[in-house]
Amino acid sequence: MSSSLPLPAAPTGNRFALVTPDDDSAPVTIVTMLSSIFTILVFAVRLGIVKRKRYGYDDCLLSLGHVVALGQWAAIFIALDNGLGKSTKLVGNREQNSSAKALFAGRILLILSLCFSKLSILLLTRSLFHWEKRRKILIIDATIVLVIIWGLGATLALSIDCSPHTMLGRGLTQCSGHVLRLRIVMIIDIITECIIFGIPILFLYAVKVANGTKLLVIAAFAFRLPLVAFSIMYLLSFTSYIDSKSSGTAIVPTMIWQEILLGYSLMSATIPCLKAFVEGFTTGGGRLGEIEVVRMPYESEGSYELGQMRKNMHRSLERLENIEDTGTHLQHSRRRSRRSNSKTIEEASIRSQTSEQPIIGMAI
């Protein structure tokens, strides 16, 4: 006789989320909540501990990325409240319209947040390698321009002549080449991430430093590489969703990968700022001289050198100034003592001369 496992009991009472054949919104809710919570916590650690009182331009851009991400998470929760992940037969037309608009806005905000994350990591890289020759710094500047163009172009490409209903797999005739546009956007996104990872390798190649130190710095930027896989999965899942013409539940994998992509992009921008990675860099490849390591091209980017080195440098400079002041003081005191001695000798000679005159007169 064949035995089979008993079916699970039907859910009773109040549940956080239910997964049924017609309602698969629970995974989206859970992933969105985890993505937002962990991302905000990591950013709080960055501002409160890692970069405390040493903020730079990269922190400003990453802050903008988190502000935009808050809008994206809010859009997803609005879509969930209006039936995201549920079968269309359970959701009315009004809720579907609201969900489509929220998803449409959420994807635009996703692109903008990814753009700010890329710019933040590029500015960090530019500051760490400020001692490089100008032609190498131009590579970073060119990449920054490329990312800005990508962010603006992707925002326009995914919104011009496109209806929000394309997010629900409908109205594709109102957005010609919708899937092709997304493919181009994500391909450029992947290319920029590869460039961001390759720049430190290019700069460290000619630096005479231990291989362990090089690997430590490269490992910090290697945490961006999973974004390539996440972008590919997001693109494939959305393409599969559009081709499936599902009744609403097939969009769930796309939204899950979207939240993973967004959260990891923002969190990975903090990893190269951690003390273990930056100390390995500043005590190795960047040591072209004590002053060059500490002094940064512009003040706001000086925060990347851990602040403590700057304090130590200031203290040493103050000590040198004190030593110089002490030496100058000693020189002045010596000169004064010499002058006083010479005056004393002159006065003594004058006195001796005046005292001798009456004796000579008496002798005469």
TrEMBL record:
Keyword Transmembrane helix listed: yes
Residues in Rhodopsin domain copies: 49-278
Chain positions covered by the region annotation Disordered: 324-364
Pfam families the record matches: Fung_rhodopsin
InterPro entries per the UniProt record, alphabetical: Rhodopsin_dom_fungi
Biased composition annotated in UniProt, kind: Basic residues: 331-341
Keywords linked to the UniProt accession: Membrane, Transmembrane, Transmembrane helix
Transmembrane regions: 28-49, 61-80, 100-125, 137-160, 180-203, 215-236, 256-278
Highest taxon above the source species: Eukaryota
Protein name per UniProt: Rhodopsin domain-containing protein
